[in-house]
Structure formats: C-alpha cells, structure tokens
What we know:
Layout: H1 18-28, E1 34-35, H2 41-44, H3 50-58, H4 73-84, E2 95-98, H5 101-112, E3 118-123, H6 128-135, E4 139-147, E5 151-153, H7 155-161, E6 166-172, H8 184-197, E7 200-204, H9 217-220, E8 230-235, H10 236-239, E9 248-253, H11 256-273, H12 278-282, H13 284-313, E10 319-320, E11 328-333, H14 339-350, E12 352-353, E13 355-356, E14 366-371, H15 376-392
Parallel strand pairs: 1-12, 3-4, 3-6, 6-7, 7-8
Antiparallel strand pairs: 2-9, 4-5, 8-9, 10-11, 11-14, 13-14
Amino acid sequence: MSLPTYSKRLPSGLAQNRHSLAISEQRRRGTALLDLTVSNPTECFETYPHSAINNALSQVRSFRYAPDPLGDLEARRAVCDYYKARHVTVSPEQIILTASTSEAYSYLFKLLCDPGDEVLIPIPSYPLFTYLGALESITTISYKMVYDGAWYLDFGSLRQAISPRTKAIVTVNPNNPTGTLLNPAERDQLLEIARKHELAIISDEVFADYNLGAKPFTATSLVGTTSAVSFVLNGLSKAAGMPQMKLAWIVLNGPEEERHGAMEGLEVIADTYLSVGTPVAKALPQLLAIGSKIRDEILGRVRSNLALLDAHLASAAAHRLHLDAGWSAMVQVPETQSEEEWVMGLIQEHSVVTQPGYFFDTDRGAYLVLSLITPPGVFENGVERIRAYVANHS
C-alpha cells in the first residue's frame, strides 16, 4: 500500500536531538532532574489562582454564540483598558482577537505575504518563526542583534536583509531569550525603515509587562505609533500568566487609511477561522484582573532568581548577560567546550537541564539559557551545580 505524500511545508528532521534524548534517558533511569527551563506559570507557582479563574468562568451568564470576526466587543474593550492602564489609547476597532500569538502570526503572514515572500526575523530569538513561516509557505530571513555589554539591533544587518520580496519585519520586544527592549531611538529608526521600504512591522510584545529597568512602556512599545503600519501582539499566555486560556490579540497601528485596508483583510481571514471561544472572551475582563496579581508574582520571582543567579556567579568563570525584561537569562560560559558539551555535561553529570544558545540561533560564544520563573529551591540548587561544573571546566 502506498503512503500519502505530505506537504513540504512540514519541517524535516523531526527526530529528537541529543539534548532531548539525554533528558529522556535520565528520566527513564529515574534520575531526579533540576529543570531550569520550565516556563509554564501553571506549573511553577504553588499559589496559582485556579479557583479565581474557575470563578471568573463560572460568572459567564450567556454562552450564546454571536460570532464577530474581530472578536467579542467587550473583550476588545477590556484589551483597550489594559493599554489605558499603560497610558496608551487604542480603540476596539484596532484590535482583533486570536486564540494565540502563533495564530496571530499565521493571520499576519496570510495578510502580508504571497508564497515565496520574505519576512525578516531577529537572531538570537525564539525559533518558532522559521516553522510558522514554512507552514505559510514564506521564507524567514534573519537580521542580527549584537551584544557589547547590552544588546542592540544591528541596523546594517537589517537593511542588508531587505529584498524586493520582503514584506514585513518581525521584532520581539522584549526579545526572548535576550530580554532586550527597543530603546526609543531604535523604535523610531525601525519605523522609518519600514515606512521608507513600504514594509509592515510585527512587534511581538508578550513579555512587555516584565520590565526590570527604567524604560517606560510608552517609550518602547509600538502600540499607538502612527508613522508606519505595525501589528503588536500580546495575549493571556504571558500578560496574565494564563497559557491555558488561549486568547491573544493583535493591535493594528499606523496611518488611518492604511489601517483601514489592513483591517479589512484581517477581518476576512479571522472570519474564516472564528477561533476564540465564547467563555474565555466573556471572562476576559475578570481574567485580566486576576492576571495582574499573577504578573506581580512572576515579576517578584524573576527579580529574586536574578539576584540569586548574580550572587552565585559573582566569583565564577561565567557571567550573566544584561537583560531589560522578560523571564529568561543568558549565562555565558567559557569556550573550553562547545555549548552542546556544556548542556550535555550538566544533564548527564549534574542532572541539571538548561538550554544551549544555539536553540535561539546565537552565532558565537557558549551560552546557557535559564528560565527565571523556575521554583526558587530548584533554581538555587541548579545554579550551584552550574557554578561547580564551570569551576571544574574552566
């Protein structure tokens, strides 16, 4: 019997890599691993408000299906209130609801690109974009973030990446895993490049609430900017610490006439899928209120784990890279062995799970990426083992 031929849009080489195989082997042996990569708030906090979320959903009085391509109006007004609290004014007509930021990317790639077109993505960054692009039959072209004591956008690399097939620039603001926030000058230069080349900007701002420094939201976010068309993404997964609720949003910014045309196209796409469920949309105002307390707890965890990490690395042959925001930290370790040897050694010899920098397309050095929302006891024990391992391999 012949087998079906599957789409070339699916990624090749789906077998487990050495990293995941080593973790699986340790778990098969019954080894208790210290996982410093956990990033699921529902698993990381014993005080997670399950009952409050249940109560918010139980207060939904009507489950009548009244589909709106842009999403429930009251839910979109709740998103407007979210931004109003951050001193930015948007209207419900600028907002479209999706089930996730991944779905938001798929909408925007459908809106902006024909098959074979290109979207520019930053590196280092989360490796999701290559897969999302392939599934939409588009090509992702990288531009660089550069580190010299702080991360910054390499505009020469960005300009060089632009071609006649380029349709959009993705910026992750704050970046994951570097924790980089655009500064106002970078944001304005990015907008100018997009305007000059008639490109859209997709600004992924899911970690914007986890700002560890002094940069105000209005100085870094693209919400409310008008000089070029931009789409800002966020959602309950990070903004409220609720990945299980499956609701995200796109905020459309830019000149009014161009916004109108973009929203018409998005409305057709969203009307095709109608993916956001009624219960979560109706409960959104209450979920966002609950989420403000979750955010506070997450931010407190990030700050305390960051201080602990810095204290343990103070006299080590490894150091933490600067970050502005988010809940990941990058630790540079000596290049006495490869990144893969570092992470494999930690798994196999010390039962500590980290991520290598190459998972995020770092192009030089040896880095370990750690989640700063790891439960404190696990995090401290793991960092102590990292320090000991570094001492023995420096």
